[in-house]
User: Fold these one by one.
Assistant:
Number 1:
Amino acid sequence: MRFSASAGRCPVIAIIGGGFCGTLTAVQLLRRAEPGTRILLIERSGDFGPGVAYSTRDDRHVLNVPAARMSAFSAEPLDLVDWAGVEPDAYVPRRVYGEYLRASLAGAAARSAARLERVTGEVVRARPARGAIELVLADGGHIACDRAVLAVGSLPAAPVCELPDDPRVIRDPWGELVGEGDEAAPRADTATTLVIGSGPTAVDVALTLCGSSPRARVIAVSRHGRLPFAHRAGLRRPLPAPALPAGPLQLSELEHRIRTHVARVDAGGGDWRDAIDGLRPLLPDLWRRLPLSDRRRFLRERLRTWEVRRHRLAPAAAASVRVLRVQGRLTVLAGGVERIRARRGGIEVRLHDGRSLAAARVVTCTGAGLAVAATPDPLVRGLLADGHAWADPLGLGLRATRPARCSTRPGAATSASGCWGRCAAGSCGSRPRCRSCAIRPWPSPTASARRSPRPLPSPSRSRREASRLSNRHNDRVRISAKVDYAMRALVELAASGDGSPVTAERLADAQGIPQKFLQNILLELRRAGIVASHRGPDGGHALAKPADKITVADVIRAVDGPLGSVAGRAPEDMEYQGSTMRLRDTWVAVRASVRGVLEGITLDDIASDHLPDSIGRLLDGSDAWVRR
Ligand SMILES: Cc1cc2nc3c(=O)[nH]c(=O)nc-3n(C[C@H](O)[C@H](O)[C@H](O)COP(=O)(O)OP(=O)(O)OC[C@H]3O[C@@H](n4cnc5c(N)ncnc54)[C@H](O)[C@@H]3O)c2cc1C
């Protein structure tokens, strides 16, 4: 199969992934695109609309959000309610929601001046080619397009331990067990199924298996052993969020404020769920305002506690779960899985605490993968390997230039990438928000060339070259190569995790910096109190203070001297006469303006992919990217 790009006529926009985000991106583009625009929606399953979440045919699997809050269109909140003919507080089957997405796509295509083409196939590679983007399909086909949108959903999680290659060990519950509803569930099943995980998918599996056979039993085992909380019945009104300070936040402070807020709501006879739901619109912003180290701590220590409260079960699903637990047909255990062995009589699962469990089959329901670099997905792996995409600072998903930014104008390069869903935690901590069109820019080949830094000398460049670069001072408004290297090394340290030392060799390798040159830079940064160096076998370099306390201005001053000097002198020391009198004021104003930018951005802002809004506004300027 071969499609060709627009060749200067109408744009061709390819959307990779025809699930929830991809379909709604297509709908938005169809609504706004210029006549003749071709929109290719590429989906490997051949079913355009429902994606993983809404493909189930088991009507025991319902939405976990009331119909009034699941409209595909934020400007038409009752669209789903009207379409499905249900009450606003109904939790409709996810199968019905899948149909709604298919119907929304068909309706938008029928009314659009643009052309929608549904392409069944799996994209395994995306790369720039002759001014366009070339997509390679698993069947060997090629598609050329002007813009590509990445909407491939959550990446699969790495298995909790090595899984035996046995049909009784089910890795994908949607494909192999519950996806087909009753037809696939073993009838009159008296067997015990062990489910690894206790989140919403584990609940779905339990509802399908126990609903299909009155004698089936399910044991759910997860590290925390907690099922999601339940929604309260009726259409609840989220409570206003508490007042929160502007600017950077610390996790401990944020938690304290939220706990106090929830306690106040409780004391006033309200419900904690409505307090938590009131925070929802703030979540992406709050997440970005946390320093990287706090985001990591949240993922390590708080994620489960948060998820069981935030992603709750519909009242009917929660009631069924209660009944199954009372009947002893659903048991939930806390424990980490150490080993799974397939035996002739069943599957044996050993937990870290030494317990051993036996089951007729095991189903893994561990949710989305949280390490994009380890994904087996060929498309995402290729994008990372070819340098067309980068992992976000936490490695959960793909980095976007301006997270959660609305960008649906026709022809915009967009990406609702694998970092949506749980993986979006890496950039904005939110679930997919295509209902409000939060899709992200994915630079086209031209745009990415425009934005990427000029190639820097490879580590093999001579010392003379390095020293020539190091002597280039910042005496004009120019960022020296030395500053650029210093910043790269420091941001690498800021993003590298728990603050343990990193060797100069690793920093140099990671950023392509000549090692000798880097050693000198690190020495200067150490003298300025920005970096601390540690000796010994585990030695290396670490930031000497928190990343959110080191500004770009601090780094420039450490390696290049004071900001905004004029011919090596401070602007206020310059002397002018006659008609040039106001030049001194001009240079002082230039310095003040440069400081405004450089003192306003910290290492943490850069490492955590969240530049301050004032800087974002500068970047949005129509000619900000034009050299002159
Ligand atoms: C079981 C479950 C229940 C959920 N229930 C709710 C709910 O009630 N309410 C709610 O708001 N959210 C719910 N969610 C969250 C839900 O995941 C998101 O709301 C949303 O469906 C995710 O959309 P997506 O487009 O990112 O992924 P998906 O909808 O899964 O779409 C990704 C699509 O891309 C395709 N694809 C992937 N790679 C390629 C490729 N290389 N080439 C071609 N096609 C490709 C896949 O086949 C898939 O169809 C649920 C999630 C799950 C797993």
Number 2:
Amino acid sequence: MSRAFPSSRAMAIAMFILAIISWAAILSSESKYIAYNITQRIVPDKINVHLVPHSHDDVGWLKTVDQYYVGANNSIRGACVQNVLDSVISALLDDKNRKFIYVEMAFFLRWWRQQSEAMKVKVKELVNSGQLEFINGAMCMHDEATPHYIDLIDQTTLGHQFLKAEFGKVPRVGWQIDPFGHSAVQAYLLGAELGFDSLFFARIDYQDRAKRLNEKSLEIVWQGSKSLGSSSQIFTGIFPRHYDPPDGFTFEINDVSPPIQDDILLFDYNVQERVNEFVAAALAQANVTRTNHIMWTMGTDFRYQYANSWFRQMDKFIHYVNEDGRVNALYSTPSIYTDVKYAANEKWPRKTEDFFPYADHPNAYWTGYFTSRPAFKGYVRMMSGYYLAARQLEFFKGRSNSGPNTDALADALALAQHHDAVSGTERQHVAADYAKRLYMGYAEAEKLVSSSLAFLADSISSARQGNPATNIQQCPLLNISYCPPSEAVLSDGKSLVVVVYNSLGWRREEVIRIPVSSEKVFVQDSEGREIESQLLPLSNATLSIRNYYVKAYIGKSPNGALKYWLAFSASVPPLGFSTYVVSIAKQTGPSSTISMVYKPDGSTNDTIEVGQGSLKLFYSADEGKLTNYVNSRNMVTAFAEQSYSYYSGNDGTDKDPQASGAYVFRPNVTFPIKSEHQVPLTVIRGPVLDEVHQQLNSWISQITRVFKGKEHAEVEFSIGPIPVDDGIGKEITTQIRTAMKTNKTFYTDSNGRDFIKRVRDFRTDWDLQVQQPVAGNYYPINLGIYVQDSNTELSVLVDRSVGGTSLVDGQIELMLHRRLLHDDSRGVGEALNETVCVLDKCEGLTIQGKFYLRIDQVGEGAKWRRTVGQEIYSPLLLAFTEQDGNNWISSQVPTFSAIDPSYALPNNIAVITLQELENGKVLLRLAHLYEIGEDKDYSVMASVELKKLFPNKKISKVTEMSLSANQERAEMEQKKLAWKVEGPAEEPKVVRGGPVDPVKLVVELAPMEIRSFFINFDYLQMFVS
Ligand SMILES: [Zn+2]
């Protein structure tokens, strides 16, 4: 190969000229120091590229929240949030044109309390000038599928109260960029009702995204609530791809995007090339976006650990892109972006319902995490109901900032709502960290609850006024039949006192069950009357779970004398307690009824009838199967069957290597689970309830309970250890079948609140290409699921979040447990294979939980779903103490209600928050439990009389607040942006409760309304003698 060289003379001249030009270029570009012009603001007639610097900091995922914060365990991942905050603050202080948004208050709080006063002053200036903006502002970026709405409100309130107190700031924007699908409740409740002006996120179904890109409908106005309609709508922006920057514009230290090289003395000068790439990426995004404003999310997971590496590049891009002039680049925030979208005065597409389920690929439906880690999901739900009750008791006694109080439980519950916490998509050691925090929070709240109950019970006893010496105990392991105080053998003259607290605003009659060791006991109410009670033998499955798990949790074996559950019906006043006494029966005296045990031998074709009240379940004696459901009161007779089956999880070895894992549900085949024995059921009968015990195989058993006074069946299942020695992961489901003709339609709740209509193999927003006929029809369930036809409706309620569907007409399916052997390639890098260990021996985790089912005449089911649904969320809280003779009953208050004795809240209203805050303010939140049109009696305006809710206090002022109580409601309404929506505005007029009259003090609530108030009292001591 040859090429012609210029002559040496010509070359010398050329070199000389080049040198002059270069020198001139160097002089003109001031290579030693370039003052980048980054003062740029919006230019009306250009495409404006809003650069939004952000870091997505998971409060636990591959590492625990504290490991992420301090930068520990970096062999898993080099991530240190302290570095992020330190370096971002210093980069912002370097130039007042730079901006940054921060989201996760759990991290910010950790950082903030370590800062000097001087640094705090500087940071406050950054916040006031808008350089640093808090977005979302909750403790974490919560999951949207598996949390309960009350937990979402609480964890958001915690972050927002901090921001208000420390910075006087009210976040304007929802930033849910990573959660795996988005709920209707997020849009209207945790969005509009917080006063947010907009909401942004990344993850929606890939088919939905393709259509929206095509139709420029990624930016919408979302009306998440049928009941509240346009009064609770929010402008919502879905990112065109993900929450990272366009390809080629990521600038963490080790990122591979080419930096702008603008020093002519160095090699690889590339300013024009990079500007061209910037402009091309901007135009591509502008092509799928309405208006001349686009947002670039400049950051991703745990970025900005060395913030200058990002800001240096963004400074240069803003400078050179604007010099180029084809598009306009600027530092921005989602708030600024929202304002310009609003100012554009466009009409936006309307979105209703939600964004579930989420798929990022034809075989990758993220519907497994609806059930992943069911034990942790159950624990979170249990703690949630406990926290609600504990805050009430804390308020009744008077809060102590030095403790014990509910603060640690509040913090732990807040972290647990993170989109890699209750979702079940974190690593095993991180799940253990969340559970440990919950336990520590519980342990402190337990002390508070005990002392508060003792205080309330003691408040008329003159002898011990103000000095409740009583030892009140609780039983956090009651779910596995372990309760030392109730199991204690009662010696002569001693009896067990059971204090039963009800955190709901209406009186409840419910059966409580406690484990006891004696078979001769009787139960008295607080007036000394003997009440009906029943002893039920424990099943072998129950005993073996108890023995194994008590050993695993507390390191010692429980004593072996336990024989029975003692069941009796308790009646408890609203926001109050009742007391029951369990004593050893005398030879001749009254005693609780020992249940009749009946084991059909499978030789007859008889039908077995179960139930002492109006609900009866019928089982076939030969097959041991449920066959019929009959309620004689409301004249419902239905064929009903229940069964278990499992999906074998795809192991990722077929053409598409997508495995079933913590996030993704990708089933291979379904297998029914048949009983292994001829005699599958044992029936236990008595005056309070009947039980049907079934052992389906060596690792699935269940107890179905029919209570005399209730019209639903309660099913307690035990599943595990799921066998995997065949090398196949399994996902266990139960099916309830009826003959109802449900036309592919079923209804599932959104975070325990609004029910959304689902149609099998169908999506409202696009023509669904069905790739995964099972996984693609799964939805998250927090409260319940129901189906209906023209005659009846079948409802199932749950005790924790699970995945569920209706794959066949008349049928409901719930996924209850999963054990998988492969990672599903979405980042967690671990198989979802939970085990529990005693000493060094580990076995697969066993799950025990409940669901509840009922069949009603069509149109009658909502009353049960809503009112009993609230009771499932807030179970009666049991506390125990011992008395000698009758010293407790004679000296203590046996029943208590915080509200006026003549008053109760209507059955459609719940007190979802009653709390004395750290600053002494009292926060009251009331929720209407029904949607518009859901029930003919309860879907109506309801009212609450505050004077009767606080009968012993003088209310001096009531201030209605936004949902997170960080601004007055009126102020929030005034600032609300009035977005325009495409299409006809055909919605009926939205109804809301009116203002609270300061004299009458009556709060009105319309269907699905939640109202939050600060209440001031004239004096704080409530229970003066
Ligand atoms: Zn995340």
Number 3:
Amino acid sequence: MIKAFKFLRRINLKTIIFNFRYFPFKTAIKFPVLISNNVFLHKTKGRVIINAPIRTALVQIGYGAIGISDFKRSRAVWEVYGDVVFNGRAFIMHGCKINVAEKAQLIFGDDFNMSTECAIIAAKKIKIGNHSGISWESLVMDTDFHHIADETGEVFNHPKEIIIGDNVWIACKCTILKGAVIPSGSVVAANSMVTKKLSGENSIFGGNPMRVLKTDIKWWY
Ligand SMILES: CC(C)(COP(=O)(O)OP(=O)(O)OC[C@H]1O[C@@H](n2cnc3c(N)ncnc32)[C@H](O)[C@@H]1OP(=O)(O)O)[C@@H](O)C(=O)NCCC(=O)NCCS
């Protein structure tokens, strides 16, 4: 009885709107996605696809209570026109912004964690592997938004997909830009910038410009 009451308390209006907007009735009624009251559902277009057994609260957006930002008021934003795929459990904390353009894809692996005040902006494709996490105030963005042309007038800074491997930890305040490829098992050190393909699994990468700080590492929560 108490369990049922606690469950029902978490099913707020935003959660109902989100689930019934994106899923067929049989899936929606299980509320696989929980949306906190602190999420601004700015655009709920496109599709949300779950490639995992459906269960309540598989994906949670706008929750958590770490004190580096005001977790009671800090607002997450969902502005989606394209496809968002969840391949399993995902926990996206308060203040995070998810922006996916029309025809773009954002793919989260299983057991994904994103800390507070991060932003992911997908204009083309961003794919994150399983058991990976992004720490607070990081930005992952596969587009520059504005065009830059060379002397012939040809634009050269097109969006490029970003691939983040399995078991990757992106530390706080990192910036991951278009064309970034982060190998499985790696750590990206705090305040680093990734603009291209990094090579070598199980390494710590860091700095700006980026360099390999340590190799043959293993990390866990
Ligand atoms: C990645 C990290 C875990 C590495 O820790 P570590 O292995 O103990 O690293 P060390 O302090 O031994 O530093 C090793 C080298 O990397 C350099 N380095 C470490 N962090 C760096 C960073 N963020 N940027 C650039 N260089 C860095 C050090 O200066 C040192 O360089 P040197 O070998 O030339 O002397 C740590 O630097 C880090 O980024 N921590 C932040 C974690 C975080 O964001 N937590 C938020 C909550 S999830």
Number 4:
Amino acid sequence: MQAPSVNTTVAGGSGKSVTGSVCPPGRPAVVVGPGAAGSSRAGRETVEVIIDGFSHQVPDIDPQETAEWLDSFDAVVETEGRPRAQFLLMKLLERARASQVGFPATVSSPYVNSIPAADEPWFPGDEDLERRIRRCIRWNAAVMVTRANMRDSGIGGHLSTYASAASLYEVGFNHFFRGKANGTAGDQVYFQGHASPGIYARAYVEGRLGDEELDNFRFEVGGRGLSSYPHPRLMPEWWEFPTVSMGLGPLAAVYQARFNRYLLNRQLADTSQSRVWCFTGDGEFDEPETRAALSLAARERLDNLTFVVSCNLQRLDGPVRGNGKIIQELEALLRGCGWNVIKVIWGRRWDELLARDIDGVLVNKMNTTLDGDFQTLATESGAYIREHFFGPDPRLRKLVEHLSDAELQTLPRGGHDYRKLYAAYKAATEQVGAPTAILAKTIKGWTLGPEIEARNATHQIKKMTKDQLRALRQRLSLQDEISDELLDSEEPPYYRPAEGSAVHEYLTARSRVLGGHLPHRVVRGKGLTGLPAPSPDAFAEFTLGSRGQAVSTTMAFARLLRNLLRDPGIGKYVVPIVPDEGRTFGLDALFTEMKIYAPEGQLYTPVDAGLLLSYAEDRTGQILEEGITEAGAMASFQAAGTAYATWSTPMLPIYLFYSMFGFQRIGDMIWQAADARARGFLMGCTAGRTTMSGEGLQHEDGQSHLLASVVPTVHAYDPAFAFEMAVIVERGIEHMYGPEAEDCIYYLTLYNENYAMPAFPVPEGDHTIQVAAVADLKRQILRGIYRYAGPAELAAEGEIEGEIEGELTGETAETTGGRRRLHRRAEAGASDGLSGEDQIATSGRSATILFSGPAWQAAMQAREILASDWGVSSETWSVTSYKALREDGLEVERWNRLHPASEPRTPYVTRALSDAKGPIVAVTDFLKAVPDQIARFVEAPFTPLGTDGFGRSDTRAALRRHFEVDAGHIVVAVLAELAALGEAKPSEVAAAIEKYGIDTEAIDPRLA
Ligand SMILES: Cc1ncc(C[n+]2csc(CCOP(=O)(O)OP(=O)(O)O)c2C)c(N)n1
Ligand SMILES: [Mg+2]
């Protein structure tokens, strides 16, 4: 075994010493007192970080000398002040480094427990009984997974994650996790997804689950199964927080703790008694999402948050840091971010060895042994350990000469020492001013036997053999409870201590003290009754349109958001969330009015303080201005969108983001939010592939509607007009919080292109007719399609605005200038030589154009041109949601398939378009696949025009020409469809191509 030649300064995977400054960037990680850097404001709490355990665990060989040093130090602090003392310390550190005296940098401490044995608190539980409980749970977890895989060898499940972390969970369950009895909210626990077998097994021992339920682990389709991992969508009365996509649990947990503070500071819910516990693996820390919010947690002093990291040194394939030390690396990372870190590395039997480690050789050996070697040591005999760990150094060998090989082999790791863990959890819950991470060293697959424990394949082992189970029974001392006969029966048995037994009584008593069992998800109180509906006034102005003023749907929404925030009922429950794009979306006025949430308030004078609309942060601020983190913003969305359950406090998150950085960037988190049964609005602003014009390839979103189509609870809309948007938002709120509330998310795309917003079309007629028509049109908007403009009248003499021709040719209005007369169809026909008998019957030619979002302009231009130039009467329809139309179509299709004897039903879109005339051309600023979603459900020939291909920067007109979605291309597409039907001549299509300057040999934009 090779040990790197470093000493106690091991801080990261490389084994190199850390030579950082005393105060690393960001929040200082060492004890900070008044007057020290970063804490000059009066009234701030001190961040106490435990790092000094080491010095209490090794013997002091000259206490008098130590006392003299400490006295001199105290005297400096007393007489010359803290800054001087700090300076001297830094000088000493410098000198120490120069003299090659290893000293831990402030972000890392030696590889020993942070809490010295002498400081461990009294353990209030019954250790023997709790060990017994753990053994029962361990057994049932292993048997549950094994039985499932005996029934179906491919069903999967995990044995070793829970086996390594059982003690970590049990300390929490027996002593810390508060339940939800008497209407309280309890603690919020994020379990490692792969540890779920142990969580079910505990519920079995408690009596919350029975044999049948355990046997349905991973057999969910019948509806009575236990989900593989924590999925509130599948087990809504059980799991609260979906975790298994690595990294998302830890990220969500940070923002959950943060949102709890938001609710408290805004006095919407008393969250002060709840703690967020997040269990993760050491491998899971590789995920950027796990690390993403660590500094936020420290910056916002989330001492209501505890991470428990099961450091079994392994992930799925092998060691996490074979060549390094993951615990040291994580310690440095977390301390560097400002966390309180408590390492629980060694079990209590090491205390005695450390106390005799006068030369520091044991600590040095601990510091310099690589994780890959620790993993091997976990699988080896006592003799091997004596030889390879203690052996090379005679002083070390001597230290353990009184221990037998068997004793050496079973020297436990801290993560399996219940009392050490209890001490760490207690310290974590008492920590003030910083979040705590407990780094507990464990063995993967602990207790499962030599073929499974610490083996590289351990994560993938799904089944235990009879012999392995027999050995496990022995290890867990369950021979009296589980007979040979039962063990030898076809399926290994579960074991539950009887009601009235000591184990059962103890569990019941503990859960009573802690306020009920976890996990448990419940919706109650205000969470059930929902939110007050906003006043209709909030939406009224949008029915009038913009009265000729050119505005964008984003601007209209910003106004609607302001109306909602001002609403006396719903207003305070609205949570606007932005990842540093508030100004882009025109929300900066809200900063002043609603203020940005900042737990410390605004400690500085904002640069724009003199302006009417200045940047305003406040402890009770309503806006979550997250900074540049879409992932963080989405985690906030989830915390806010599930508060109706977690806090019985319905909240309405409205998350506005750059649409390209939504579904594409954090799609997994949207999926997670849907699993968590979150409710709220996702607003994809600056949407579209041609509408963003100058921003180019990475910014132009042409796909989010396709990506949104895959999330079952997302209702995705692409409104063209402010009134459509208002109708959708009003319904969305009702859908989430009205009388028939559903756990759903609304996704709306908003654009930054300005145009005059039309008014809500209200037909002529008496009041009753109008009311009915308005209701009907609203229904159609919500179902996904309505007729916007009826058949165009043919060929009235007239002129068309110059801008239109500009669009047609890719030129801008400025370059074409003025008004121009467009060629009439007759002229075009003549120039095309279509005369006399050559002409096919062109009378009565019709077409239907579908548009969404800003594509409505090109659609309307095409409608006019088709009428005036080509004798084609077309109508335009606004498609607000292809997703909704497709889902309805699929539903009907399925119903028909399964009910062959019944009268077949017709999809809504089929019915809606049944009297639309002629072929259909659908134009969108998204991929062709978006409109293609309904192609199967319409009877007419269907051509989608969309923006497939990489985006690029140019003017809107040029981009629309490039992507072939401008009016000229729509006209050509309609004529081509008519030609295919025999209603137009190919030469007409060719004439149109030429007339509108379309380059037939241009590269397909999908490939460009
Ligand atoms: C995003 C993502 N990538 C990959 C996986 C597959 N996966 C499941 S568990 C696991 C290893 C977990 O290791 P660790 O976090 O150390 O947990 P342990 O089981 O060791 O406690 C991996 C890679 C996943 N669930 N999610
Ligand atoms: Mg691991």
